[in-house]
Amino acid sequence: MAYVQPAEFAAKMIEAGESKILMSTKDTLIRSYMAGAILALAAAFAVTIAVNTGNFLVASLLFPVGFCMLYLLGFDLLTGVFTLAPLAVIAKRPGMTWKGVFRNWGLVFCGNFAGALTTAVFMAIIFTMGFSAEPNAVGVKIGQIGEARTLGYAAAGGAGLLTVFIRAVMCNWMVSTGVVAAMMSNSVSGKIMAMWMPIIVFFYLGFEHSIVNMFLFPSGIMLGGQFTWADYFIYNEIPVVLGNLVGGLTFVGGMIYATHFKTSPKRNVSGAVGTTVE
Length: 278
What we know:
Belongs to the FNT transporter (TC 1.A.16) family. By secondary structure, the protein is an all-alpha fold.
């Protein structure tokens, strides 16, 4: 069957988390590097569409192509391992420890950042004719995005940090739903369709994705955005990473684990002696 029942993909999530923890350092870094590079390219693609068409909805509808490519190629995003890796420990799989989870998260963060930064440099070269000219319209827009989503939050103080954190929570609620949704089908077309839907929601609503931001903000600085690396990390990347962790682990991994893997006994409403058992 094309559709996989929730109890089955809940077990697949735990197996995937165990696989992430056990993966070698080399494979983890390569897969996370490529995931960051591909997602960054999809972000550049989406910004280009938005600038050239003036229609952000069209950009949002097409952005998920990058997410689908990297997932089908077996590459890893930090947002996904935030959700999957801890489940292997929570399910008490033999040999699974929080030390292994943190190792995986650290390696994937480094790989994603390196991949996204590579794409950022490449696209900055393209947008400026090898840094010999002023940024084109897309490059200017990327710089403006960086300013708005760092200095804009900073200007609001604590309320700004709260807002960016909640946007990050909501982001990985949707993105990790896309990761899990791919497990709901055994066909490539089914996986793509299931992944596409939540990714559109996250992107169109302007939620904060730590790996997309690893591209947008470094490239924004290279393209003349009036903000600093400190602004980027303090008012965006750090709270976004934390929010992505909370969103993926609680609203996706934790909830599916609690109800589809650790299913409670069903109520007996008839009862052998005419009583209702809760």
